[in-house]
Fold:
Amino acid sequence: MTETSKRRTRAGHGDDSIYWDRSKNRYIGAVSLGYTPAGKRNRPKVSGKTKAEVRQKLRELRKELAAGVKAPANYTVAQAVTDWLAQGLKGREVTSVDTYKSLAENHIIPHLGKGKLCGLEADHLDEWLEAEAEVLATQSLKMVHSILRRSISHAQRRGRAVRNVAELVEVPEGRAGRPSKSLSLDQGAAVLRAKQGTWIHAYVVLSLLVGVRPEEARPLTWSHVHLTGAGKEKPHVDVWRSVRRHGDTKTRRSRRSLAMPQQTVAVMKAHKRREQAACSAAGMEWTDEGLVFPTETGELRSALNVRRNFRSLLKDAGFENPKEWTPRELRTSFVSVLSDYGIPIEVISRLVGHNGSGTTEQVYRKQLRPVIAEGAEAMDDIFGDDDDAAEDEALEEV
Structure:
C-alpha cells in the first residue's frame, strides 16, 4: 500500500462526511451546501452513536433537502410551540392567547418539549395523549392536540419540519367535563333578590331573565338596551355584539333582539340612573355608547371580574358553595326554567340564539319538556312575586 493510499481520502465538494467528535463522544455526519448569503459555510449536521446510524440520518437529510425542506436537527417541540404562540396567533383575543399559552405550558412543553421535532413519532404522541386523557376533559384534550398540530404546521411552512406527525394520531376520550347546573326556582328567586342596587344584580337579572351569554353581556352598550318600546314594540335588548374577535356574536342566529320582562326593565332603568349619576359626579358627559356594566374606570370588565362578583352575590343569596357556580349557568338556568314552565324547545333555542333545537337539548337538558308559551311573559309569571321589589328599585332616588 502506497503512502498516498494510507492517507485519509478527502470528501469532494457536496459529498457527505462522517467523523468522530471526541468532545461529544459521537459520530458526526455533515453535508456541504456551499455558503449562506452571509458568507458562512452551510453544513447541516447529524449525529449518532455509530457510523451506520449517522449514514441513515444523512440519507434522510438528503431526502429532505431534495424535497426543498431542511428540518433542523436540534429544533425541539418546545421551540415549535413557542414559535407558533408568538407568530401564529396574531389578531386573536388576549383571553384566547392566554388559554393557548396555559395549555401549552402545562400539558405539552413539560412532556414533549425537550424532544427533537424531527424525531417525534406517532407512538410518542399516542402515549402522551393517553396520559393526558387521565387529567383533561375531552374538549381540553382536543385543544391541546390542536395546539401541537398547528405548531408543527407552522414549523412546516418555515422549512423546520417535513411531516406533521400530530395529524397521524387520534384524540382519545378524556375525563368527563364538569357538568353544568341550573338554579332551582327557589335559588333563582334568592339570586334575584341579592345585592339589589348594584351592577352585578342588574347583570344577573338580565342574564337569568333574558338569557344573554356572558360574552354578550360584558360588551353590551346602552344604545342596544331599549327600556321604552316604540309603538307596538316591547322594551328589548339587541344582542348584536360579543367579546369575540371583531365583536361578532357566536353564530349568525346569535345576533338577535330579545324582549325584556317587566322586572328586567325596572331593574335596568334603576341601573341606568345610577350609571348616569356616577358619570355626572365624575364630571363626564353621558353617552349611550357607554358600556352597561363597565369597571369603575369605564372599561370592559374581564370574565374573572364578573365571576368573582357573581360568586359574591351567590354568597349573599345563601349559597353554601358559591365557587361551584359560574355566570354561564345563569343561561343554563334560563333555558331550564322556561322549559319547566312549558316553553317549547323550538322557541327556547331561538331565544338563546342556537342554530337548532338539537344544541339546546344536548347542552341545556336539565329540565327540558316541550309545551307552549312565550319568553318574557313567562319570566314575568315565574318570578312575578318580585315585581314589587323591582318597582321599588326602579323608583329609588333619582
